Amino acid sequence: MNIVSYLVKRFLRFDKEQPFIFLSALLAFSGIALGVMVLIIAMALMNGFDNEFKKKLTVMNYPMTIQPKFYATCDTALLEQLRQKFPDLSFSPYVTSAVLSRSGDQMEGGYLFGVDFAQEAKVNRIVAEGLRGGIPKNFEVMVGKSLKEEFQLDSGEKLTYIFTQMEPGGLALTPKIKRFNVVSTFNSGLSAYDKGFSYTSLSALQRILGIPENLYDGIHVHSANPEADIGRVAAALPDTVSIRGWWEDNGNFFAALKMEKMSLFIVLMLIILIAAINIISSLLMTVMNRRSEIALLISLGASKQEVKKIFLVLGIVIGLLGITTGAILGFLGMWILGTFDIISLPADVYPTSTLPLDLSVVDFFSIITGAFVIVLLSAWYPAKKASEVDVLTVLRNE
Fold it and tell me: Per mean pLDDT, which range of 38-52, 196-210, 380-394 is the poorest?
């Protein structure tokens, strides 16, 4: 073992007679460090953006939603039954209608929700924050920030909603039209939701749509862990209603993000693979340059396993130094990108101007393990060639 460590240290030194060997090892070290650094930052960015999208989608899509099947309805009896059986969850009944919002000559399509604001505030923190500006009552409405800015509305102004429901008007059927007073504004951070969603009182929209007070279009459910709770809630529901989680409506989107993340990991891992080729070339050149020394070592009693171990350890040392340096640089880059406003993000999409970074433990160890395996395989072949040096031929010729 002393021979192995002594020769590894010696072979790592700069050789004036063969500077290209040292340069090749330095390039291998730099390439592995760069690859690990880029992989760590890239995986952290992918996880950060995934988490930001999940937060946004969870807020406006609700963790779970109970909806009736076919022409059935949700009623007060079902709502009270669920509240008694699941006191740890929050339930908010709603009715909804597709509408066109109009202000002057401007129009925007979307949905108008009728909710009990006291209950809705428990399941939607964005609505709860918007209620600080005022609680909508009969024929008053809470609109999104983007819609308010687009229509240039002030609090107390009128906003006209055109419903898809029809009512008799003269000789033809005309859509229902109702004007609401704008009393408050919510800001979800996503302009599509801020333009498309509006909230009014449950009783007001039930009256407009002709829905009895004890019937609803659905029930929003808040849970800290919806993936685990959806099963037990579904088991307590009658056959006339169903429940779905927010992730079920966005399954294709997150599947695409997962595939993109995996593809990025594989592509960036190729950087480490290319750098590992420099390890192979550097070790092979070292073996060719040290053939006489290797032959002399074997003739003096060193075993082929010891010779193989020398070059295997040499390659592993170069690789581990690169992996360690890359990990340090990766975490340093994450800290810089997460602390300083280097890259500007659109304010209407993200709540912060700095990049969202979140490196999971699984991703970190996957990067380190993958890089180490590549380094180990790269060092194995030159080590094997070193142990196969023909002692007699080398000593006879050199």
Answer: 380-394
Name the pTM for this structure.
0.69
Distance CA 241, CA 68 (A): 4
User: HSE (CB half, 13 Å, CA atoms) of 333?
Assistant: 20
Phi/psi of residue 317, each to 5°?
-60, -45
What lies within 8 Å, CB to CB, of 26 at 6+ separation is: none
Q: Report CA Rg, the chain.
A: 33
Mean predicted confidence (pLDDT) in 9-29: 73
Residue 326's Cβ-side half-sphere holds a number of Cα atoms within 13 Å equal to: 30
CB 219 within 8 A of CB 82: yes
Q: How far apart are the first and last CA of the chain?
A: 27
The pair phi, psi for residue 167, each rounded to 5°, is -140, 150
90 vs 240: CA distance, rounded Å: 21
- Residue tagged 């490196």 (tokens): 359
* Residue linked to tokens 């056959």: 239
Please list the alpha-helical segments (H only) found in the chain: 2-12, 19-61, 76-85, 117-123, 125-130, 145-151, 191-196, 202-209, 226-235, 246-249, 251-289, 291-299, 304-339, 361-387, 391-397
Per the CB < 8 A criterion, the answer to whether 367 and 383 are in contact is no
Specify the amino acid at residue 187: N
Residues 202, 183 contacting (CB under 8 angstroms): no
Residues 94/114, Cβ–Cβ less than 8 Å? yes
User: Using the 8-state DSSP alphabet, how is residue 378 labeled?
Assistant: H
